[in-house]
């Protein structure tokens, strides 16, 4: 076959493939049309598929920075600035005694209702803009209800809880109906942040944390229901920032410790459920971000406990809990290697901190050496190369600590003991690798 015949043959094949592709696309469109008709008959909301929308994507695609600012950014910034402006305006009126307490509540509710009515009016023509207005209205009404109970005592705690619970449910259902993350994100940020424009709430932290817990329950459900994992992660960051900030800035009141710890534990468990919900219910493996969320949640638990109690007590408590969590994850989730290793490393760091704060001098160095020995033995027994490497790293840090920090404080006898212990341990580690080097190499190849 010459070159010309080969070219003709390739052209025929290309034409046949093009025909087959067009035929498949037509079949896909027919099936989508049938599926739409079935959904409409049964009252199921119909979502436009990406393939169906493709022919019109070019004319809908925003062009340039101006379209991005005009169609996306201005809406978000505008509603945030508006809500902040309303809050500052109310604060100014309060400081200047310009309006009565009842009028403040009436005006605040009126602003939220106006935003809500505008969102309903513009929903069909401007869905995204309507969603932004709706989220701003919910944030305003959330805060106003919170203020009615906390600051002015116009309503009872039960009524305030019932109103905010209904608002939470309604916001969740509307966010699902709009299918927009913006409603959840802006409404959540507004509901969290607006109270702090008015007061630090340091004298009513139980009410503030109960209010936050109610919002978080709704956010966690919405995060799972719509697979909006970012919403749950953002809620975790905001919540822990506020909780740790309160615990750090609070006055030394022992009666606040255990109530604060109760809220800390509840928030911790709630965000653990949030991070593992897809694994538990849908049997999906943890993503990298979900594993990171669990690790950050552990660190936040430690920091909050540290601010509530003394360092030794908090370090010991979280060390035990993290060790237990690592064992549970290892037993129940053997495939989640990143999470297992992360929990071990976090727990190890807190353990070393606890040892350093609980004891002093030679005893700390020797305990660090003991931890290194236990880790290395665990790595050998469990055939885990990363555990052995962690033990070697820890003994290296112990040696660095001895050279940089302890040399100026230890007596000659203490230095002799430490140097001999670390030297012998390093030689034993080296002997293990020399003797079993080939086996270790093969093990690493299998794990990789």
Annotate the secondary structure layout.
Elements: H1 3-41, H2 50-60, H3 64-95, H4 101-121, H5 127-150, H6 157-178, H7 181-193, H8 195-198, H9 205-225, H10 229-249, H11 254-282, H12 288-308, H13 311-332, H14 337-358, H15 362-381, H16 385-404, H17 412-435, H18 437-447
Describe the structure.
The chain is mainly α and 448 residues long. Helices cover 84% and strands 0% of the residues. The chain contains 18 helices and no strands. The protein has helices at residues 3-41, 50-60, 64-95, 101-121, 127-150, 157-178, 181-193, 195-198, 205-225, 229-249, 254-282, 288-308, 311-332, 337-358, 362-381, 385-404, 412-435, 437-447. Helix 3 (64-95) runs parallel beside helix 5 (127-150). The radius of gyration is 30 Å and the shape is flat. The two termini are 48 Å apart. Mean pLDDT is 76; it is low at 46-62 and 197-202.
Sum up the structure in keywords:
3 domains; coiled coil; transmembrane helix; transmembrane; 448 residues; DUF2339 domain-containing protein; membrane
